[in-house]
Amino acid sequence: MRRTKKQIRRRLWVVLVTLALLVLVGVAGAGGSEVDAGGAAGPQQTQAEQSQQAGQPDQAAPSQQGSADASRPQASAAGDGTQTLDTQAANAPPEGTLTVRFLDVGQGDSELVELPDGKLMLIDAGTQDAGPTVVRAVRDLGRTRIDYLVATHPHADHIGGMAEVLHAFDVGEVWAPAVAANTRTFEAFLDAVEDKGLTIRAGSRGKDIVAPGTAGYDVQILGPSDSLSSEDLNDYSLVIRVRFGSTSFLFTGDAPKDEIRADAREHVDVLKVAHHGSDTGTDASLAAQLSPRIAVISYGIDNDYGHPTQHVLDALAASGAQVLGTGANGTVTVTSDGTDVTAAPAREGPVVAKSE
How far apart are CA 276 and CA 299, in angstroms? Predict the structure, then answer.
């Protein structure tokens, strides 16, 4: 049966419409599946949005993360593959300053030590006549408390001013060797300690006034031994080392050179020269052993004891020390930042031997 052109066109139209409908159905089905998926999961979210809703940090912002990391200190690898951050922290300079004032108290000893954490230590207080000088020095610092009061030994030129100091200030701890003297000066010292309601801590080798690792510095008693038996009170002098950072100070009272030699076997940066510069406290061997950068002698310019001697001055000079003395230079202030030490005398002038 022959079809007319009209019938052919109609049939072609039906086919085209059918094909079009099939295409539309296919597209609609694909779109429906996408909507269904969206409906099941809800509106689509970025990874960042999903992370934030879960309470997690945004992991989809690498540029911000990199910026945050850049603001943190980074440990750089050393040539051997080790990390250097911890080493740098360990080598960081210590905090604070250590300041020691070797007070000009005439023929006697007195050292005022401002510790890096702000505490105050007084080692000896000169003669009784020097008491007001020591009290004034403490007050000039604006202080009302001495945390550690140390009497190196019972001689009057070291503890004479202690009673006045004890009466003037609040005192934390009192340290002294376990030896007594039958003198009014020593009795006045004991009475002042008792009046304060304090007790004396017996100092001897191996005891710590401030233990290492507790305050960023340490104060250790190196000698003498608690078994010492001697008729000479000078032999009982406490030998005290203060260490701050890589710097060290050695306070020797009137200790004999053999005792110091046994107690302090290493280099010290600052030495309080024993026994006012007497031959009994220092010789060339000890000066070389300690090799101090700064040596301070506490003595009266017109003393009757022949202090300091030329032998001691020569020994200290040979060791390379800068030699200062309260007789020639007045109060000598030595400061440590934990790495270096510097000395500032109240006045300039050479330390000259009193006798040969």
Answer: 5
Tell me, rounded to whole angstroms, the distance of Cα 101 from its chain centroid.
Answer: 18
Strands 332-336 and 341-345, sheet pairing: antiparallel
Single pTM value for the model: 0.75
11 pLDDT tier (thresholds 50, 70, 90): low
Ranges of each domain in the chain: 98-345
Taking the domain 98-345, which CATH number applies? 3.60.15.10
Listed in sequence order, the DSSP H helices in the chain are 5-41, 47-53, 62-70, 85-90, 131-140, 156-159, 162-168, 184-195, 257-263, 284-290, 310-318, 326-329
Tens-place pLDDT, residues 95-138: 899 999 999 999 999 999 999 999 999 999 999 999 999 999 99
What percent of the chain lies above the pLDDT cut of 70?
74
Cα 164 to Cα 81, 128, 140, distances in angstroms: 61, 8, 16
